[in-house]
Structure formats: C-alpha cells, structure tokens
C-alpha cells in the first residue's frame, strides 16, 4: 500500500495537510532518529490509535461511567489495565493519563497538599520539570528541594540524597528523569524514602521498555507509585500510565478522574493495549537488550573519538555528551547534525555554565535505530558521522561544514534505505 492510498480520504479532504504528513513520513524514514525519547510504533499501534474509538466519550472507569454505550470501551480499557498489571507485576494500573506530566500531577494530587515539601532530581542534572523544578507548577505549588549528581562522577550519590532527605523530610521523593545514562538504584531510594516516611515515586518514562524487557531493574516492589509514558522505549502511542500498590490505587484513580481530567482518549487506550501486548512477546526482550548493547557500542565509539560523556558512558539507552572540549555548543552542533540527517537534541549537562536554550551538550539514544534493526556496525558509523559533523561545526569554515554535511547526508540516506521503518508505508 502506498503512502497516498493509505491516506486517500485525507488527501481528498485536505491535500495540504496530507502533503505535510507525507513529508514527515519521508523525513522519519530517511533520517537517523537519535533522540532518546522518540521511537517508531508498529503498524498495529498506529491502526489502533486511528480508529472510531476517538468518537466515544467515556468519563469514569470500567463499570462506573457517566455516559452510556460503554460495552466495548470498558472491555478495551480493562484489557489495557490487565496487560499493564501483568507486564509490570503491579497491583494496580491506571491507563487514562493523557501524558507523563499529567500523570505526575495526579500523583501530587493523590498524596500531597500545596506547600508540602517534595524532592526530586534537579532538572539541569537530568531530572524532569514535574519533579519540583521551579518553572513548573510543581515547583510553584509545593516546597521543592532537589538533589544533584556528583561533579566528579556525574552520578547520583545516595548518601547525599539521604542526607538531604533527612534534613528536609519530604512528603514525596521522585527518582528517575530525562537525561540519566546510568542504572537507577530503586532499592536504595526506597530505603531512604522509608527512613524519612516519604512516598517514593519512580518516573520510568524513559526506561519502561527496558524494565519490562529485563534490561533495567524494575521499580515495582520498591516504589509506592510508578509513572511512565507509553511511548519512548515502550513503543506505544503518546499516553501515560500510573502503577501503584493497593494502598494508593483509589487515591490515584480519583486524582486522575475527576481530579485532573475528563474522559480518557479511548483510541490512545487501544494503542496502549496493543503496545503492551507487543511488549509481552519474547522478541521484545531481545529488542530491549539490543537497545542497551547499541548504546554501549555508540558510547565506546564516541569515547574513542574524544567525546566527553557524562558519567563516562551509559548503562541504558541514553548518552549525554558534553561538547565543551570539542569547542562547539550543543545547539549549533545539533542543528548541523540535523541537516546531515542525524537527529539529536541539544541538552544541558550537569553544572552547565551555559543557558538551557544554548547549552553545552547533546542528548542521544538508541531506541529508534534499534527498532529499525540496526546494530553494532551501524552504531560505529553513526559515531563516525557525529564526529565528522561536530568537528566541522566547531570550525569557522562554512564551506567545509557544508561539504561535510552534504556528504554525510548522502551516506545517511544510503544507510536508512537499507533498513525498514516500523509502521511506515513504502512509497
């Protein structure tokens, strides 16, 4: 089926928008997607997410709705919930949050009151906005304190976390984040939370797929509440889930609805159910472990080419690069790489002296390239291309930079043409 035939109705009704979607599909097929929070969903997830389920409003929970006509919807949501519980080994699952940030807000609503002390990883160190950062509502409504990484290792020091927790006695402690390249010690965080009487929340949005694939330790059994998006390494649609012990099941459900939102997006719930079913298959474990192996290979290649990696490498899917020694900032490097077909995002690094919108680092990851079937050899090519473009971007010869970008762009196009793109049709 061609791209046009697959969206015949859209092309007929709105050719301008259809053309833009076609262009985005071509872009995704022909570039190397290295942003660690991005991935490719399967054709089955795409189909489930684009169904007539978008026509139905379903405020409430299965068996307890405020609208009639829920006979099928209740079964779909129940299927997603049961699959989530089985896959993660959790007592309870809520699959209704619209995205990761609302899921985290629901946790606050369920367990804390405005003005309570909450604790999370500092955003510039790799945490998330909703873990109490000052520009977030969570940093405005709550008294937020933050832990950092060690300057000498780039890693979390649990002794320092414990010292801060004992001094501040937070109601909530968040672990997890958006730019953490190392294994999270959930048991260690749980011990600290228990000692100070805090609720431990594990935000595994980035690593959920690695957790269910056995490539990263699970927080279930350690954290009271686990939040996650359903895309990223889990390869589902853009949504979220909250997993809890029985103790927090009812407060969390009440916080999601009616506390923060109305009816769930049923088409997204269906896509989540499909993705969870896919993640339960043996092949997904192979995928998760290959993501980690690919990240390790890419990190080794970058280290060999003189790149400085935060914490010295990676244990998971994510690599955080400090470009200071390369003589170029993250933003111009990311823009040059993008023109060469290598998609990254500029990112702050721990103790970054530069501003967040013009930081020193790049954040990259291997989930999407692994979904396309790429392995060790391709990771080494990617490392070489990144080195060539970044080196050229650090210079002051625009003609030389353009020549490198053009050459690498051609080589990237040749490589991507040899690997299928999950979920995307061929022209």
UniProtKB/TrEMBL annotation:
One of its GO terms (cellular component) is cytosol. Its EC number is 2.1.2.1. PROSITE patterns: SHMT (PS00096). It holds the Pfam family SHMT. Gene3D superfamilies: Aspartate Aminotransferase, domain 1, Type I PLP-dependent aspartate aminotransferase-like (Major domain). Its cofactor is pyridoxal 5'-phosphate. (6S)-5,6,7,8-tetrahydrofolate binds at residues 123, 127-129, 246. GO terms for biological process: glycine biosynthetic process from serine; methylation; tetrahydrofolate interconversion. It is an enzyme of class 2 (transferase). It comes from the Bacteria. Residues 11-386 form the Serine hydroxymethyltransferase-like domain. Pathway: One-carbon metabolism; tetrahydrofolate interconversion; Amino-acid biosynthesis; glycine biosynthesis; glycine from L-serine: step 1/1. Transmembrane segments: none annotated. Homodimer. Belongs to the SHMT family. This is Serine hydroxymethyltransferase. It comes from Jiangella asiatica. The lineage of its organism: Bacteria, Bacillati, Actinomycetota, Actinomycetes, Jiangellales. The gene is glyA.
């Amino acid at each position: 089926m061609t791209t046009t035939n697959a969206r015949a109705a859209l092309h007929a009704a709105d050719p301008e928008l259809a053309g833009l979607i076609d262009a985005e599909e071509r872009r995704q097929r022909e570039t190397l997607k290295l942003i660690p929070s991005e991935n490719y969903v399967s054709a089955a997830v795409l189909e489930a997410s684009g169904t007539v389920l978008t026509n139905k409003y379903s405020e409430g929970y299965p068996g307890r709705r405020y609208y009639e006509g829920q006979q099928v919807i209740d079964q779909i949501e129940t299927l997603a919930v049961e699959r989530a519980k089985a896959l993660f080994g959790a007592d309870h699952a809520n699959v209704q949050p619209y995205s990761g940030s609302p899921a985290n807000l629901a946790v606050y609503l369920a367990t804390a009151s405005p003005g309570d002390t909450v604790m999370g990883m500092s955003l510039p160190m790799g945490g998330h906005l909703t873990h109490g950062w000052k520009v977030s509502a969570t940093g405005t409504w709550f008294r937020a304190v933050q832990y950092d990484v060690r300057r000498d290792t780039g890693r979390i020091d649990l002794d320092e976390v414990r010292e801060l927790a004992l001094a501040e006695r937070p109601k909530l402690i968040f672990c997890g984040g958006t730019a953490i390249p190392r294994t999270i010690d959930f048991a260690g965080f749980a011990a600290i939370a228990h000692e100070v009487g805090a609720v431990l929340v594990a935000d595994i949005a980035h690593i959920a797929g690695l957790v269910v694939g056995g490539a990263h330790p699970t927080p279930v059994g350690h954290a009271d509440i686990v939040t996650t998006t359903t895309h990223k390494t889990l390869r589902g649609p853009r949504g979220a889930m909250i997993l809890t012990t029985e103790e927090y099941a009812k407060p969390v459900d009440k916080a999601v609805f009616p506390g923060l939102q109305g009816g769930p997006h049923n088409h997204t719930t269906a896509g989540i159910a499909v993705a969870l079913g896919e993640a339960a298959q043996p092949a997904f474990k192979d995928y998760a472990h290959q993501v980690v192996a690919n990240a390790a290979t890419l990190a080794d290649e970058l280290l060999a080419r003189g790149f400085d990696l935060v914490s010295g490498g990676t244990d998971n899917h994510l690599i955080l690069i400090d470009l200071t020694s390369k003589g170029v900032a993250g933003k111009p490097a990311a823009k040059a790489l993008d023109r060469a077909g290598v998609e990254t995002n500029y990112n702050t690094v721990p103790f970054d002296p530069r501003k967040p919108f013009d930081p020193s680092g790049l954040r990259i990851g291997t989930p999407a390239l692994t979904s396309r079937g790429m392995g060790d050899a391709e990771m080494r090519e990617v490392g070489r291309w990144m080195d060539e473009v970044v080196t050229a971007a650090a210079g002051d010869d625009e003609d030389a930079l353009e020549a490198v970008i053009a050459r690498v762009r051609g080589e990237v196009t040749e490589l991507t043409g040899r690997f299928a793109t999950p979920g995307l049709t061929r022209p």
